Amino acid sequence: MNKDVYILGIETSCDDTAAAVLKNNKVLSNVVSSQKIHEIFGGVVPELASREHDRLIVPVVNKAIQESKIPMKKIDGIAYTRGPGLLGSLLVGTSFAKSMALSLNIPLLEVNHMHAHILSIFIDDNPKKPNFPFIALTVSGGHTQLVLVNSPSEFIEIGSTLDDAAGEAFDKSGKLMNLEYPAGPKIDQLAKKGNPKRFKFSKPKVKGLNFSFSGLKTNFKNFINNNTIEFIAENSADICASLQNTIIEILIEKIKIAKQEYNIKDFVVCGGVSANSFLREKLNDLGKTDEITAFVPKINYSTDNAAMIAMNGFLKFKKSSYGNLSDYSISKYPVS
Ligand code: KG4
Ligand code: ZN
Predict the structure, then answer these.
(1) pTM for the model
(2) DSSP characters for 285-311?
(3) 35 lines ligand 1 (CB under 6 A)
(4) Using an 8 Å Cβ cutoff, are 135 and 158 in contact?
(5) CATH number of the domain at 6-120+302-318, out of 3.30.420.40, 3.50.50.60, 3.60.40.10, 3.30.300.30?
(6) Cβ contacts of residue 257 below 8 Å, gap of 6+?
(7) pLDDT tens across 12-64, in order?
(8) Does domain 131-296 have CATH number 3.30.420.40?
(9) 45, 157, 279, 290 - which has most CB atoms within 10 Å?
(10) Which spans in the chain are helix H?
(11) What sign does the CA torsion over 68, 74, 77, 82 have?
(12) Same fold, 6-120+302-318 and 131-296
């Protein structure tokens, strides 16, 4: 019988300080401290994010270890986010993980944040898992990509955004409506009571598997500027529902094109925007209309978290694919 493996995961790529302990692919603890300090600025302030990680990393890791009820000496490896992300933020997690691996004399496992989003689907309490090869749509605040995943270590980018990410389309539009940062979850909430067909916003004419959201952003900005504050406040549910519908239609259309081009039916949709309830509904419909099976991680594993980092670390540990103490943070770590 294989020995159980305990991995501590550390995530500090953006504005969430997170740590988790996994026993094989089972989550024993998953602690996320989302930095509130950025709210008043309407976006993440990199310098403040690094300082917050520095302040929070010790208590967050301690909490994850305590909640896992696993003594430190049982931890077999330390997985950390090497990139992509904000360099100052990554440095905190990277240095912390290196020191801990060094002091415990256990392997260090370097993890690409985008791979971890994709592989989070293999955490044991997700209800269903895809078969390789599958296609992943990663939709977060910084990324919108289509990735062909041949194995847990072979990722090929087949499409990406030419400008803004899907999460940015939510957040920047929400900012124009004076919604708090990050606006994605608030738009999701407000849209529940709105009519998604009431307003028409522009969709990009980008062929193939690439995305673009900058035209929609400009179109939405003009719409806000051309209407009164009262009108926007009174119709916020319909505005949010229509905006959300446009963003989701853009994503769903690309999934359909990817299915045709690659003749692959299994799609993993991950990253913060995959928490969107309307997107989840539309992905479900794809099973009925287009023979596409969509796999979406549980919400806790969709937005930034360290369980996904530990999951990827566990897969690397099993293959003895260890990192080095000389590895350094990579802010633009490519997916393939
Ligand atoms: O993956 P993530 O937590 O962090 C990054 O790596 O960027 O993604 C954050 C993004 C933000 O843009 C946020 O507005 C968006 O995910 N988001 C949502 C929802 N929950 C988070 N967007 C739409 N609907 C949601 N329910
Ligand atoms: Zn992320």
Answers:
(1) 0.95
(2) HHHHHS--EEE---HHHHSS-SHHHHH
(3) no
(4) yes
(5) 3.30.420.40
(6) 208, 209
(7) 999 999 999 999 999 999 999 988 888 888 788 999 999 999 999 999 999 99
(8) yes
(9) 279
(10) 46-68, 87-104, 113-119, 166-176, 184-191, 214-225, 229-234, 236-262, 277-289, 299-302, 307-318
(11) positive
(12) yes
Q: Would the CB of 302 count as within 6 Å of ligand 1?
A: no
Closest C-alpha among 305, 258, 269 to residue 22: 305
Q: Tell me which amino acid residue 131 is.
A: N
User: pLDDT (tens digit, 9 = 90+) per residue, 228-241?
Assistant: 999 999 999 999 99
Rounded (5°) CA angle 235-247-211: 150
Amino acid at 101: A
d(CA 271, CA 167): 9
Which residue's CA lies nearest to atom 1 of ligand 1?
Answer: 272
Tokens 């930034």, residue located: 304
Q: Residue 54's Cα: distance from chain center in Å?
A: 22
- Ligand 1 close to Cβ of residue 116 (< 6 A): no
